[in-house]
């Protein structure tokens, strides 16, 4: 019975799927990816899908840029 149970759970990774920011960029120049990932994974670890991006620092026009792929959110 133990063998059959472990076989059924082989693909299960645990946790729920959450939407979070994954940090990228370098020192003093952060950049975030908006990703869907398992809740137990590391912040910058492997993710299921990238949904968008966010640049928190203002550009030359004083705007903070964010992009979302609305097709992927559905």
TrEMBL record:
<comment type="similarity">
    <text>Belongs to the bacterial ribosomal protein bS16 family.</text>
</comment>
<protein>
    <recommendedName>
        <fullName>Small ribosomal subunit protein bS16m</fullName>
    </recommendedName>
</protein>
<dbReference type="GO" id="GO:0032543">
    <property type="term" value="P:mitochondrial translation"/>
</dbReference>
<dbReference type="Pfam" id="PF00886">
    <property type="entry name" value="Ribosomal_S16"/>
</dbReference>
<keyword id="KW-0689">Ribosomal protein</keyword>
<dbReference type="GO" id="GO:0005763">
    <property type="term" value="C:mitochondrial small ribosomal subunit"/>
</dbReference>
<dbReference type="GO" id="GO:0003735">
    <property type="term" value="F:structural constituent of ribosome"/>
</dbReference>
<dbReference type="InterPro" id="IPR000307">
    <property type="entry name" value="Ribosomal_bS16"/>
</dbReference>
<dbReference type="InterPro" id="IPR023803">
    <property type="entry name" value="Ribosomal_bS16_dom_sf"/>
</dbReference>
<keyword id="KW-0687">Ribonucleoprotein</keyword>
């Amino acid at each position: 019975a133990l063998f059959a149970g472990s076989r059924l759970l082989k693909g299960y990774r645990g946790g729920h799927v959450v939407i979070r920011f994954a940090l990228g960029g370098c020192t003093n120049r952060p950049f975030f990816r908006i990703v869907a990932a398992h809740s137990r994974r590391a912040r910058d670890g492997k993710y299921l899908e990238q949904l968008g991006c966010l640049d928190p620092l203002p550009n030359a026009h004083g705007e903070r840029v964010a992009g979302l792929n609305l097709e992927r959110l559905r």
